[in-house]
Amino acid sequence: MSKILIRGARLLGGEPMDVLIDGERIAEVGTGLTAEGADVVEGEGRILLPGLVDLHTHLREPGREDSETVLTGTRAAAVGGYTAVHAMANTFPVADTAGVVEQVWRLGKESGYCDVQPVGAVTVGLEGRKLAELGAMADSAARVRVFSDDGKCVDDAVIMRRALEYVKAFGGVVAQHAQEPRLTEGAQMNEGIVSGELGLTGWPAVAEESIIARDVLLAAHVGSRVHICHLSTAGSVEIVRWAKSKGWDVTAEVTPHHLLLTDELVRTYNPVYKVNPPLRTEADVMALREALADGTIDCVATDHAPHPTEDKDCEWPAAAMGMVGLETALSVVQHTMVDTGLLDWSGVADRMSARPAAIGRLAGHGRPIAAGEPANLVLLDPAYRGAVNPADFASRSRNTPYEGRELPGRVIATFLRGRATVMDGKLT
Ligand SMILES: [Zn+2]
């Protein structure tokens, strides 16, 4: 493998440094580096971060290849600066056996654009009744450590308790999609002033918060580890903050869209804004930003949820829930967290790489930029400003809420173990 010299990029937003990549690893970090025969990548004015890690991606394969495949999803991930993604289990068939998680893991290896770590289902068929083969998935070649019925909530307290107890044996974690099903029957959007005015069935904050409260208590009771997916309310932040203050092993994520968008957008009746959990209020958005800044929320996770046009381009009540997010996540985080002064670039590296890698027990990712470390890196231009054009997406789907919106920042290059998956903003 050839050598690559990234010259004069600001490491984690700090001082300009040179980084020499030799093969799969970082060989040297310093100033005034030279290397005979190395390809030089100009880093001036650019930021160098560890490759991003997503804890929450829907790659849709097997079963819904019309919306995304492992290949198209990992290409989208590379464009967004990601070097590893966790693939959620709500595929067809559901990833609830060693066979299915190994299939997804193998497809990820073949794609070559980004590492794919399969998430295993907590219950058979995501039906919430019987625990899936958690141990077999953990022992499989896919080495599953994160288990989730995402898309559905593990609402049975006994099943949740058993899952939490089971994953302790291999250092696993249960990632909960917190949605009390009875309180959200037929729910279409956040319950509040806007839902009242529009006459759409509301999705109360308490439906999320009551499950989170129960699950942090359960995790503490059995001494296990719980991760809360896509926090969306100020109340959820308060519960997680309280659980952490007790020293319990609780982590949480927030999506880029919940850091930026509010339920006021539902007034357009444009289903591109229909998502689970729903967009909340301005006060919730501000609480989520603050919690990500102070570390109460551990990480940003995209909840990249591709859907074909026919599933989104219909009447609000019939439209599928979800948004694509891999290719815009870093820009939205720059806009909401960095450009507002809430987080610096080393904070972004922590919340989008180091912490998600630690939560997912992912070796080789989220590492410091230092000699000897795997060369998983993203080089970005923070000065770039441009409107989002879904036609440019590498994802197979186009359901972005940011079409035409000007966002800052652009990924210039992504390196996966020393190999450029993206160069000059384009897939290699
Ligand atoms: Zn979910």
From TrEMBL:
<dbReference type="Pfam" id="PF12890">
    <property type="entry name" value="DHOase"/>
</dbReference>
<feature type="domain" description="Dihydroorotase catalytic">
    <location>
        <begin position="45"/>
        <end position="233"/>
    </location>
</feature>
<comment type="function">
    <text>Catalyzes the reversible cyclization of carbamoyl aspartate to dihydroorotate.</text>
</comment>
<keyword id="KW-0378">Hydrolase</keyword>
<feature type="binding site">
    <location>
        <position position="58"/>
    </location>
    <ligand>
        <name>Zn(2+) 1</name>
    </ligand>
</feature>
<feature type="binding site">
    <location>
        <position position="307"/>
    </location>
    <ligand>
        <name>substrate</name>
    </ligand>
</feature>
<dbReference type="InterPro" id="IPR004722">
    <property type="entry name" value="DHOase"/>
</dbReference>
<dbReference type="GO" id="GO:0044205">
    <property type="term" value="P:'de novo' UMP biosynthetic process"/>
</dbReference>
<dbReference type="GO" id="GO:0006145">
    <property type="term" value="P:purine nucleobase catabolic process"/>
</dbReference>
<dbReference type="InterPro" id="IPR032466">
    <property type="entry name" value="Metal_Hydrolase"/>
</dbReference>
<keyword id="KW-0479">Metal-binding</keyword>
<dbReference type="InterPro" id="IPR050138">
    <property type="entry name" value="DHOase/Allantoinase_Hydrolase"/>
</dbReference>
<feature type="binding site">
    <location>
        <position position="56"/>
    </location>
    <ligand>
        <name>Zn(2+) 1</name>
    </ligand>
</feature>
<dbReference type="InterPro" id="IPR024403">
    <property type="entry name" value="DHOase_cat"/>
</dbReference>
<dbReference type="InterPro" id="IPR011059">
    <property type="entry name" value="Metal-dep_hydrolase_composite"/>
</dbReference>
<dbReference type="GO" id="GO:0005737">
    <property type="term" value="C:cytoplasm"/>
</dbReference>
<dbReference type="GO" id="GO:0004151">
    <property type="term" value="F:dihydroorotase activity"/>
</dbReference>
<feature type="binding site">
    <location>
        <position position="150"/>
    </location>
    <ligand>
        <name>Zn(2+) 1</name>
    </ligand>
</feature>
<keyword id="KW-0665">Pyrimidine biosynthesis</keyword>
<feature type="binding site">
    <location>
        <position position="177"/>
    </location>
    <ligand>
        <name>Zn(2+) 2</name>
    </ligand>
</feature>
<keyword id="KW-0862">Zinc</keyword>
<feature type="active site">
    <location>
        <position position="303"/>
    </location>
</feature>
<feature type="binding site">
    <location>
        <begin position="58"/>
        <end position="60"/>
    </location>
    <ligand>
        <name>substrate</name>
    </ligand>
</feature>
<comment type="similarity">
    <text>Belongs to the metallo-dependent hydrolases superfamily. DHOase family. Class I DHOase subfamily.</text>
</comment>
<feature type="binding site">
    <location>
        <position position="90"/>
    </location>
    <ligand>
        <name>substrate</name>
    </ligand>
</feature>
<dbReference type="GO" id="GO:0008270">
    <property type="term" value="F:zinc ion binding"/>
</dbReference>
<protein>
    <recommendedName>
        <fullName>Dihydroorotase</fullName>
        <ecNumber>3.5.2.3</ecNumber>
    </recommendedName>
</protein>
<dbReference type="GO" id="GO:0004038">
    <property type="term" value="F:allantoinase activity"/>
</dbReference>
<feature type="binding site">
    <location>
        <position position="230"/>
    </location>
    <ligand>
        <name>Zn(2+) 2</name>
    </ligand>
</feature>
<dbReference type="InterPro" id="IPR002195">
    <property type="entry name" value="Dihydroorotase_CS"/>
</dbReference>
<feature type="binding site">
    <location>
        <position position="150"/>
    </location>
    <ligand>
        <name>Zn(2+) 2</name>
    </ligand>
</feature>
<feature type="binding site">
    <location>
        <position position="303"/>
    </location>
    <ligand>
        <name>Zn(2+) 1</name>
    </ligand>
</feature>
<comment type="pathway">
    <text>Pyrimidine metabolism; UMP biosynthesis via de novo pathway; (S)-dihydroorotate from bicarbonate: step 3/3.</text>
</comment>
<feature type="binding site">
    <location>
        <position position="276"/>
    </location>
    <ligand>
        <name>substrate</name>
    </ligand>
</feature>
